[in-house]
Design goal:
The chain has 622 residues and is α/β, with parallel strands linked by helices. It contains 25 helices and 17 strands. The strands form six sheets. Strands 3-4-2-5-6-7 form a six-stranded mixed beta sheet, sandwiched between helices. Strand 16 and strand 17 form a beta hairpin. Helix 1 crosses helix 6, helix 2 packs antiparallel against helix 5 and helix 3 runs parallel beside helix 5.
Length: 622
């Protein structure tokens, strides 16, 4: 049997790509060993029930990465290491580690990782398998990596009957997971038979966008099936769309910066405040990508509505204004925590606007230590990008394009029919705030969405939601439609939060009837001057959405009345207990530095049923 040292010595001097191809073939051979003919055991019994499909998918994708031998999509690797660590069975552990090291070798072009992959394959294998490994070693010198990969996995003679039986058992087990693993059977059979490899298609299959990956193994497999069938019919189309979200305090200059990108004139002090969100599209120069620029209102109360749309796979542009009374670092931290809470580790570009009037002074070393997702800081003046700040603006624009391209690397692919539904939804959005469930089903029927081996309608709907094409709240049972126009939701919430009726309530309390009255009586216009209609039967959805995102809570004793924590009294009431009294158990949470604004309102909403004697105010609760 080959030892780890023997393998590394045999690989010495062999080109990297051939080493990886050899490792991939060795690991692929032992994949069927995951199916163990043990009576009375469920398929893949050595993994926890809820994780079996995810672990199997991780192994398959990491093995496929070795066949492609490319760094494409390396950040999307599911990482079969987790499958190895979770396996309660030595052979499953060895197969998973073999796959993980194949992926590592392909991503980083490392002989050591390739040798490790083969060593784990040897550990899992029987003499029949090891004989095939020796045969590969004998022919590596006369083949390129692609030629080696396209040789049948069992290079001499037909597939051994014992291996064929194990492969059939593996297929049976994978089918019983009911997660669409059939899409992988042709891929593996092609490797068994030595059929030609379509590298371009495999690269697309490896580059699984986060929107799909987050929905789990079944959705990933359905997406892969869609890619394959669409490619075979010549119908695949890339979305080529990325999202850039502009955030920052009111009057910082977000809208001015977007106007500057569109080569539109900007005049100091003439830009109207964005009352909610404004959305524009910007073709990314030198690419086929279109950036959708989301301009979020800067008024403090509307910040809470941003979470409706903040996503991880976005680029954030934080615009800072040194002329405010808030220290620039504090201002930056407020928004960086905002991104951290809802956008996780998404990249953030810091822009200091109006630097012709006052410099924006930031402690960038401290900020980058705390927030490593910061791309850089760009001092600008939107009114002077053609002269005094021409160079600084050119640098910002070039880096913006580069960052948008990075976000757009992992593009979604749609079939012709899926794209037709997407286009239909987009065409309705400007004039129709809602798309009924029946209308969506009719669209899906018309274009045969959700067929066997493709994304289900629910998964396709979830995808449209993550892309911001529709807003879908499956937990809200009384909503009989999907929201097509995101402005409808944000402007509705904004109208409530800033209404005189809410401000006149000392305890931040409103009734459902008052909400309907406010939304029906106000003339609500979006940034394009379109009047947004709030039918009586849809007004309740605004409250439901605010509840869902912990912006308000219903009174336990009267479900038709609700409280908005941001509108509670600012002053702490008299409290009739002494937290320092003997026997009192007290906890103190010390936020060293910055306390994100959403923490206290969220806590109040989440625990509102436990409020004692109405002791609740904007910044605290008993």
């Amino acid at each position: 049997m080959l030892s780890r040292g023997d393998i590394e010595r045999r690989l010495k001097g062999v080109p990297f790509d051939i080493c990886i191809a050899f490792a991939a073939r060795s690991a692929l051979r032992v994949l069927p060993l995951l199916a163990v003919d043990t009576k009375g055991k469920l398929p893949f019994w050595y993994w926890p029930t809820q994780d079996r499909a995810e672990h199997l998918l991780a192994i398959l994708i990491d093995l496929q990465r070795g066949v492609v031998i490319s760094k494409a999509g390396q950040n999307n690797s599911p990482n079969a290491v987790r499958a190895a660590e979770a396996a309660n069975y030595d052979i499953a552990d060895a197969v998973a580690y073999a796959a993980a090291y194949v992926a590592h070798a392909a991503n980083h072009v490392e002989i050591n990782a390739a040798a490790n992959a083969v060593a784990y394959a040897v550990r899992a294998a029987t003499d029949t398998y090891n004989k095939a490994i020796f045969e590969d070693l004998d022919v590596m010198a006369i083949h390129s990596s692609l030629e080696l990969l396209q040789r049948p996995l069992w290079p001499v003679g037909p597939l051994p009957p014992s291996i064929q039986a194990r492969w059939q058992l593996f297929c049976d087990w994978a089918e019983r997971l009911e997660s669409g693993f059939e899409v992988w059977f042709d891929f593996y059979q092609d490797r068994l038979d030595g059929n030609p490899i379509d590298i371009d298609l495999l690269k697309k299959q490896l580059d699984i966008p986060a929107e799909i990956r987050d929905q789990g193994a079944k959705s990933v497999n359905a997406y892969l099936a869609t890619l394959i069938s669409g490619a075979n019919r010549g119908e695949l189309k890339s979305l080529n769309l990325v999202r850039a979200i502009f955030i920052g305090n009111g009057a910082a200059g977000k809208t001015s910066l977007i106007r500057t990108l569109h080569n539109e004139p900007v005049t100091e002090g003439k830009e109207a405040m964005t009352p909610g969100i404004a959305i524009r599209e910007w073709p990314v120069a030198g690419t086929e990508i279109t950036a959708r620029l989301w301009d979020f209102g800067g008024q403090v109360m509307s910040h809470s509505t941003h979470q409706f749309f903040l996503r991880e796979r976005c680029l954030y542009i934080l615009v800072l204004d040194a002329r405010t009374e808030i220290n620039a670092n504090d201002q930056a931290e407020y928004w960086l925590e905002h991104v951290k809470a809802f956008g996780k580790n998404a990249a953030v570009m810091l822009v200091g606007n109006k630097c012709d009037l006052t410099p924006v002074n930031l402690d960038m070393r401290a900020l980058k230590e705390k927030y490593p997702n910061i791309v850089g800081f760009y001092p600008l003046s939107c009114t002077q990008v053609a002269d005094r700040f021409k160079h600084q603006y050119a640098t910002f624009r070039a880096d913006l394009i580069e960052q948008l391209q990075r976000v757009g690397t992992h593009q979604l692919y749609f079939t012709k029919n899926q794209f037709a539904v997407l286009q239909s939804v987009r065409e309705r959005s400007p004039t129709d705030a809602f798309l009924s469930h029946e209308a969506f089903d009719a669209l899906c029927d018309r274009y045969a969405i959700g067929g066997k081996g493709e994304l289900s309608r629910d998964d396709f709907l979830g995808l449209l939601d993550k892309l911001g094409e529709v807003i879908h709240f499956p937990e809200m049972s009384r909503l009989d439609s999907y929201v097509l126009n995101p402005r409808w939701l944000t402007y509705g919430v904004y109208t409530l939060l800033y209404s005189d009726e809410v401000d006149s309530k000392p305890q931040g309390e409103l009734s459902e009837a008052q909400v309907i009255k406010i939304l029906r009586s106000k003339k609500v216009e979006d940034e394009h001057g379109n009047v947004l209609d709030y039918p009586t039967d849809k007004c309740g959805f605004i409250i439901d959405a605010m509840e869902e995102f912990k912006l308000c809570y219903r009174l336990p004793e009267d479900r038709k009345h609700f409280v908005i924590p941001d509108k509670l009294p600012a002053e702490q009431p008299e409290l009739d207990f002494d937290k320092k009294a003997p026997g009192t158990l007290a906890f103190e949470f010390d936020f060293c530095g910055f306390l994100p604004r959403h923490v206290m309102p969220t806590l109040i909403v989440a625990r509102h049923e436990e409020v004692v004697d109405g002791n609740v105010w904007q910044n605290g609760v008993v």
